[in-house]
Amino acid sequence: MLCHIITIFPEYFAGILKIGILRIAQEKKILNVALINLRDFAMDSYRTVDDYPYGGGSGMIMKPEPIFQAVESVKREDSYVILTSPQGRRFEQNLAKELSQKEHLIFICGRYKGVDERVREFLADEEISLGDFILAGGEAVCSVILEAVVRLIPGVVGDEESVATDSFVSGILDAPYYTRPADYRGYRVPEILLSGDHQKIRVWRRKEALRRTLLRRPDLLERAELTPEDIKLLKEIEEEEKNRSRKC
Ligand SMILES: C[S@@+](CC[C@H](N)C(=O)[O-])C[C@H]1O[C@@H](n2cnc3c(N)ncnc32)[C@H](O)[C@@H]1O
Fold first, then answer.
1. Which site in 74, 234, 238, 247 is 20 to 30 Å from 117, CA atoms measured?
2. Which of this chain's residues are annotated to bind S-adenosyl-L-methionine (predicted)?
3. What is the average pLDDT across 128-149?
């Protein structure tokens, strides 16, 4: 995957591109990231990329010309142009999956009061939001999206089964996990995980994943693809939880 990031702060990405999954993906030549300093496309010697809003009001708006020119300098037939914006489609795992299948992503990182509306209307393929809150700029948004997307590209994460069982990837929340020691300050790991019985452990994990989904995110269960075994386990969980609340 080729990825261009258009930003007034290319230095923001210096650290994150050198660590973890993004570093590995680049080393494996699965990912190629190029940073574009938006100011290189400014129209004046002051490298100005923002201006006052028409109609007055507070805050500065990112000018359209440098953004259009920066995108057009790298755009190809298969490019997908993403405008980071709190008003866009909410970023979730299914969107990460969709983006992981693209050949070329171009991110536009907004700043100030926002970006001239014509960028959204006539240049971006999609506006993506990280959630209902306001950040100072699109750089953090871009780094989050990139990390979530890149770990889904086949070959990036060595253990693909681990990715497949992650929360949301499998349609439900992931199971609880424990590691050594088996007893820490008297807090014991569930016995079944020490039993060595892989079939029982698989069923236990699935059941606990379903339990926490039912208790924390029941909305996910409405959309999840459940097997007959899942439905049986859910019935057991509902019964167990009813008994538990009766005892309290
Ligand atoms: C201060 S924000 C502008 C917010 C804009 N005035 C609004 O209320 O919709 C500046 C830039 O940060 C980015 N940004 C801030 N919060 C975001 C979020 N939740 N999701 C995606 N991008 C965000 C966008 O690129 C945005 O153009």
1. 74
2. 110, 130-135
3. 98
> What CATH class does 183-247 carry?
mainly alpha
For residue 50, the CA-to-ligand 1 centroid distance in Å is 15
Q: Does the beta carbon of 141 lie inside 6 Å of ligand 1?
A: yes
Q: Is 7 in the pocket of ligand 1 (CB under 6 A)?
A: no
| Fold (CATH) for 2-150 | Alpha/beta knot (3.40.1280)
Q: Using 50, 70 and 90 to split pLDDT, how confident is the model at 144?
A: very high
Could you report the per-residue pLDDT of 190-230, keeping only the tens digit for each?
999 999 999 999 999 999 999 999 999 999 999 999 999 99
DSSP assignments along the chain, one per residue: -EEEEEES-GGGHHHHTTSHHHHHHHHTTS-EEEEEEGGGG-SSTT---EEPPTT--SS-EE-HHHHHHHHHHH--TTEEEEEEEEEEEEP-HHHHHHHHT-SEEEEE---TTEE-HHHHHHT-SEEEESSSS--S-SHHHHHHHHHHHHTTSTTSSS-HHHHHTSTTTSSSPPPP---S-SEETTEEPPGGGGS--HHHHHHHHHHHHHHHHHHH-HHHHHHS---HHHHHHHHHHHHHHHHHHHH-
Cβ–ligand 1 contact at 86 (below 6 Å): yes
